[in-house]
Description:
It comes from Argyrosomus japonicus (Japanese meagre). It is a single-pass type I membrane protein. This protein has a 29-stranded mixed β-sheet, with no helix packed on it. Strands 44-43-45-46-47 form a five-stranded parallel β-sheet, sandwiched between helices. Strands 13-15-17 form a three-stranded parallel β-sheet. The chain contains 21 helices and 47 strands. The chain is flat. A hairpin with a 2-residue loop joins strand 1 and strand 2 (about 100-105). The chain has about 1000 residues and is an alpha/beta fold. Helix 4 (about 45-60) runs antiparallel to helix 5 and helix 16 (about 900-910) runs parallel beside helix 18 (about 925-940). Among the domains are: about 10-80 and about 800-845, no CATH class; about 95-230, Ribonuclease Inhibitor (Leucine-rich repeat, LRR (right-handed beta-alpha superhelix), Alpha-Beta Horseshoe); about 855-995, Toll/interleukin-1 receptor homology (TIR) domain (Rossmann fold, 3-Layer(aba) Sandwich).
Amino acid sequence: MFFFCFHNDILHLQTVIIYEFKYLLIGLVCLFYCTFRISGLFLVGWKEILKMGHEVKEDKTMPKGRAKYFKLSIMFLLLNINNFVVPVKGFALRSCRISYSTAICAKNNPRLKAVPKDIPPTVKGLDLCANKITKIQRSDFENLPLLTQLELDRNIISQIDTGAFANLISLKKLNLNNNKLHELRADLFDGLRNLTELRIRSNGIKAVASTSFKSLTSLMLLDISFNKLNHLTNVHAIIQHLPNLKDLSIYGNGFTTFNSWELTNSSLGLTSLDVSQNPFGVFNITTNIFPNLTRFNIGGFHSKQHMKWEVRNTTFPSRVSTLDISGLELAFGHMKTFLESVNSSLTSMRMNAMKYNLTALINISCTIPTMSTLQLRRNKLHFIHSNFFKLCINVTELDLAESRIKNIQDEAFASMQGLKILTLSRNTLHSVPAATKYIPTLEELDLSKNNITTLGCQDFANMTKLKHLRLFNNFISALKDCVFKDLIQLQVLKLQGNRICTFGGAFKKPNLPNLTQLRLNGNGLATIKSGAFNGLQSLEILSLHENKIEKLEDRCFIGLTNLAELQLQSNNIQTSNITQEVLNDLTNLRRLDLRNNHIRYNDSSAMPKPPFSKLSHLQILAIPSQHRRGKSQLPSNILQGLTNLLVFNTRNSQLLSLPKDMFNHTPQLQTLDISSNDIVDLSPELFSPIKNLKSLYISRTSLRSLDFLKDAGLTKLEFMQARKNAFSVLSEEVMDSLKALVYVDLQGNSFTCDCDNAWFIKWTENNNKTQVFDAYNFECNYPADLKGMKLLDFDIQFCTVSTDFIAFVSTTCMVLLFMVVSFTYHFLRWQLTYAYYFFLALLFDSKNQNRQAANLYDAFISYNTHDEPWVIQELLPKLEGEQGWRLCLHHRDFEPGKPIIDNITDAIYASRKTICVISRRYLESEWCSREIQVASFRLFDERKDVLILVFLEEIPTPQLSPYYRMRKLLKRQTYLRWPRDEEHTEEFWEKLRKALRAEENLCEDRLLLTVMD
Length: 1013
């Protein structure tokens, strides 16, 4: 702040004013905070003050006293009063991101310990899983009335406040799995009247209050498994208040008995019940408490003794259609009785990981006329003999996965004349079992993840109805021409993950006329020969990625006129292989992926035969992503013919630039990915043909600026990812040009923490349209002293001047000044002394006003005591000893006993010039600050060039920012630098002599006094 010294009688007047206002000040304690804000923000408008003050002084018609009053008013008008306004938060979330109306805060690093407070009220989904949240407070979700799905699983929640969910009136799904809720208190779920699904598995729940679930009248699915309920009475307390409950899972709760009377009148509407993995000793049902039950799971717990089955009501489970008794240990007689009770309704049976009587159980199950699906996973079958499924004549789906099967007798499935789906995956078969040939109705066969090494011509003989064949993850090395000769209905063939090096003519002949999907990825193919797929007229998806393909012969894709997707990424394909002769037959191709190959173009000039010119239906193209080192360029017409292209990906292609006319042939382009290249700059003309662009990926491209977007015309751009580039400032013009932008990702950029980014910071916090992903973790890289600071923590109050309340401040600032100064005099004396004295100067004459006394000194030396050796040893001998100037030094010429403030003011006004010896110590000194303030105001008030700045050391500009006045003077007034090489000081002393001799008239030309090394 400014600082002035006036006559001692003014101090007396000041005391009078304080006592006159003391009673008024009692009621104005609330203004104390405003005082600090005013003192801290006083320098905000200093630049504007100087400018306006100069204009005022040029106005000869304005009285001098009124000019000073105008200057003081302007200072208060420039206060940044936005500091008192709570900002409206937009989509710059601290710990989350928004995706399709869902706030995703899952698996954060560091993980969240509480629910974030900045979730927008418009979200419909909130994912907080895999964090470290310990408590749900009442206020956590009070502003989310539209929320329909809430994921809180995998936290450590042990407490939920009453009414925490009360405002979630639209919530449909709530997931609290894997937390620490040992007790469900009364009214825990109050307000969730529309909830339909509740998952609260694995919490260690031991106690349930009788009214915990009374509000969940719409609940249809409840999963409270893997807890410690122990007794069915706890289950009864839960479901008695759930009239619409259909699906109940209570497995793994330590129940030892099941008595139907414990659930009487509370479970009549259930259609699905899972009570598996409980150590039941007795299962007792005397009345039909599950009249509508269609899915029942009771297996999964191994104990030393069999469960006792006492079901006296024969109507249970007469309507069950899906039964899971996996791992159930029940006496054979009870099991037989149990299975006979579902004789008229059962359609699907699961007997996985059974220990006893599996063959007998299969025979009993297969006698049920309605039973069509049989799942026998994780059983130690080893060998399937011919009588194993003799009675299963009605089974249409058989699952034998993970059963350690090595051999299958040829007629093992002969009785299953209606079998359509057979799963033999994850076994140890070394060849295709001959037994499959005797199933004429088979439509799906899964032989994946076995030890099959070869395929014979008769392996799939007579399978004319087979539609899906899965042979992936075996050890097949070659395909014979005749292997698929009878599979005329086959639609999906999966051969990925084998060791196939050649497939000969397996796909040349029209043996597979209906095949639409062929997976050959992850094999050892090296060459695709001409006409290799000529017989696959219906093929739509062909996967050849992750092979060792080096050569694509001309017309190798002939016949694939219906192919829509071709995956060739991660091979060894050369540039010369991507030609018209190779690709022209794919006239209906929609997607082509060529990434991670050895494709590189060295010339940006037009190609004589663009490779994709005949692929007019292509919508997605990914090229080329290098394996080899070296920079490359794309030919200007490489996209010629792709009039319907929607997505173009050339990520990680080591490109140096893109031709300006590259996208002239792709007017429909909506997604462009040019990330991970060495593109330093992009031209706006590049984007002029693609006005429909909606997604732009430009991460890791070394871009120094996004200014190209200002004139690019991307008014439909909705998504932009620009991570880890070289730009540090984002301008308002760039963001204003992207009118449709809803998501921007700028992680990893080297932001500058200064006023150039003030607009971007304010926009990030306040906009309610565009989500700036991870904005609160943006770090500053410049200036050096702010490196590592969060960008949004940078205080922009000194960068902008708000005019929102200028009219109000202009009418009240003088009243506030009286009140605040009077109250805070003894607390902020030095900060407000200048403002107080300045105001009194408007009412009374000051001894310094219009001072006409003769100059007693040529110069007053302002310096810090740490710089006194230089002043005494260097400055004083030169200026007084050799050049004969009369200097004023505080340790020598100040009047003893006189207030130091008066001494400073008198010395400056009694000197023709003021020399400030600037160093870092000087900037830290309060009294040195007072001296330069008084001297600078004298310059401002008298319009005389009375100030000379001498810098003893290099001081970066950011360190001068608190002394804005000094930086202004550096631009307008004379200043010198003490040479770092002290042997060449003659020019410095000559310049200083000329500065002292120069006249004080500001209108005269100044000498250029800057002395450099």
